[in-house]
Each structure stands twice: as structure tokens, then as C-alpha cells.
Amino acid sequence: MAPVRNARAIMNDYPSGYPEPGKTLVYDDSQTIDLDTVPLNGRFLIKTLVLSIDPYMRGRMRSGGPSYVPPFELGKPITSGGVGVVIRSEKEGVKAGDHVLGLMGHQEYSIRSSLEGMVIIQDKHGLPWSVYLGAAGMPGFTAFVGWKKFAHSKPGDVVFVTTGGGPVGSMVIQIAKAEGLKVIASAGSEEKVAFMKSIGTDVAFNYKTTSTREILEKEGPIDIFWDNVGGEILEAALDAANVNARFIECGMISGYNSGGAPVRNLMLIVGKDITMRGFIQTRHFDEHKDEFYATIPEKLAKGEIKYTEDITHGLDKVGDVMLSVLKGTNKGKAIVHVADE
Questions:
Q1: Which residues have C-beta within 8 Å of that of residue 259, sequence separation ≥ 6?
Q2: Which residues does 244 contact at the CB level (< 8 Å), separation at least 6?
Q3: DSSP E strands: which ranges in the chain?
Q4: Checking DSSP bridges between strand 333-337 and strand 275-278, what pairing results, if any?
Q5: Segment 30-43, tens digit of pLDDT
Q6: 333 and 134 Cβ atoms separated by less than 8 Å
Q7: How far apart are CA 134 and CA 129, in angstroms?
Q8: Which of 81, 97, 261, 317 is the most exposed place for a label (fewest CB within 10 A)?
Q9: What is the pLDDT of residues 275-327, one digit of tens each?
Q10: At CA 83, angle to CA 50 and CA 171, rounded to 5?
Q11: If DSSP codes are grouped into helix, strand and coil, which group holds residue 212?
Q12: Collapsed DSSP state (helix, strand, coil) of residue 191
């Protein structure tokens, strides 16, 4: 077989604000690979099928500094969650035809020496592989484990969820509604508001056209706050919090590109006995992964849990998709489709 293209999405320049497609991330199709003859030397060859684009990736577009994840390296492919299929293998326990899920480079083909950071997966429920990067993957697990460990929900609680139209927020909404709780949720477009209503949200609103403070004053006080935004919305939620409220800090996307607005009323954490808990889902994965995969994919296949996807085709579009996620213009879980099987 003649060599084939092995295109890549490369980290080219660290941005100071929003990443710029074609500058921050660049598409490179100069490399080739011979799938039949490339030496494996005890390793295995993967064909990339789908890749995930997530807000946390913005935090890796930096030269250094403290963080829970290392920066992307200039001149090399960025990485994110992905699903691929094994083409050839000389690795014990890995065979051609296996599907792997985990952290993958943004390139069409890659050679791996181990399954570190990856698992072999089987789709027992007929779901598209892309779903294992969204509702049945990291975002879904984030919602599942964050709620399970930190919500401490009780009957009568009022829940406020930000970015409720996204893959994490929409899962949180559906978990809370399954417990019979009142849910207030915000998103940044009317299309996302309609989706939130379709999954049972009691009060769904567009924060760009409606005052979050006014909604919370009318529909609160709130007992559980799932925060994906931070900044001014976190400040409003603190004002609207009940005594003994639980704040689950999952992300603060409002500050990922600008540094974020100051929160001026943090003393309310003391005055209202608020518990504020941040978490990184990977630190809880081993403890709760079996329960998650034993329950959530089946519910998704049966339609008991709803999800939306926004699939873009081609590694050359990675920069555009990244920008859409950070600006909130994507219409569902952002996926880059790299190749069919």
C-alpha cells in the first residue's frame, strides 16, 4: 500500500485572548504514513475516528504556569478525548479491530506503545462512537460524579445550572429532574433554551437577553448551584443562595480568555454557611467508572437521557470548533469527525 496522508492539528501559537483559527491552531497535511509497513516494534497503530473539543482545552494553550493539566507543546498536535480503531498491533492484549477511548493526538493516525490513558471499549448499545466523548464520556461522567458526590440533594431543593444546553449541564439537569427537583437553567441561545425545556427544565432562560439576577430573585432561593461559568453569574448565585447551599464548581468559562470578572461577595459563603466544592473528574474516575458505564449508556440508548451533538468534519476545522466552544456558539457537544471506519 502506498503511503497515505497523516494530517495533524498543531499548537502553533499561545493566544492572549480567544484562540485564532489558522494562527493558534494550524492544520498540517505534510506528513505521510505507510499503514502496512510502518515499524511497530511491539506497539499498535490507531486510526482516529472522532475527537472531542472541550472548554478545558483553552487552559492548555499557554506557555506555563500552575494548572491541573500541562500546556500543549508548540509544534506538536494538541490532544483531547478521542475514539479510534486499531489497524495493526504487535502489543499483547490489543488486536486489530479493537476500539480505544482516551486521550488522543489530533492526527489521522498514531502509534502507541501502551494503553496508558486509554481503554478498549465495546459499544453494547448501538450508540455512535461520538456519544462516548459526550453524554457517555467525560462530560457525562463529570455531571454524574459531581452530582453524586457533592450535591447532597434532598426533596424540595431548588437547583440552578449554568450552560444547561451543553453536555455537562444538560446531564445535570436530567439527573436533578429524575430526583423530582425544581431546576432553573441558563444558556446563551434560544435553541439551547428550547433544548433545556425539552428535557424538563422548570425555568429555562437565555442569559444574554434575560437578567440572571431577576430570574433567581423570582424563582429562588437556590440550594444547589452547578457552576460552569464563574464571574458575574457566580456572584448572582451567591446573592440568591439559601442557607446551607451547595455550590459545585465545575468550570469558570467566563474567565478562560479574559481572566474573569471579580466576585465581590464571597463573604456570603460564611454568612450563608455555603459549601463550595471544586473537582476534577479524573480524580474520581476509578471509583465510579463502573457504575457510570453500567447505567448511563443504556439510558442513552433507550432515550431516557437526551443529548445533542454538533459534529464538524475534518481536522482542518479544529481551530474553528475550538473558538465556537469558547464563544458558546456550538449547538451541542462539539465533536470533530476525522474518519469513518
A1: none
A2: 223, 272, 273, 274, 275
A3: 4-5, 8-11, 25-28, 32-33, 44-52, 79-89, 99-105, 109-112, 118-121, 158-161, 182-187, 203-206, 222-227, 241-249, 275-278, 309-313, 333-337
A4: unpaired
A5: 999 999 999 999 99
A6: yes
A7: 10
A8: 97
A9: 999 999 999 999 999 999 999 999 999 999 999 999 999 999 999 999 999 99
A10: 85
A11: helix
A12: helix
- Residue carrying C-alpha cell 465510579: 288
Question: Rounded to an integer, what distance in angstroms lies between the CA atom of residue 50 and that of residue 2?
Answer: 24
Question: Which residues lie across from 7 on neighbouring strands?
Answer: none
Sheet strands (E) in 24-181: 25-28, 32-33, 44-52, 79-89, 99-105, 109-112, 118-121, 158-161
What are the structural domains, with CATH classification, of the chain? 4-134+308-337 (3.90.180.10), 138-282 (3.40.50.720)
C-alpha cell at 134: 459526550
pTM (two decimals): 0.93
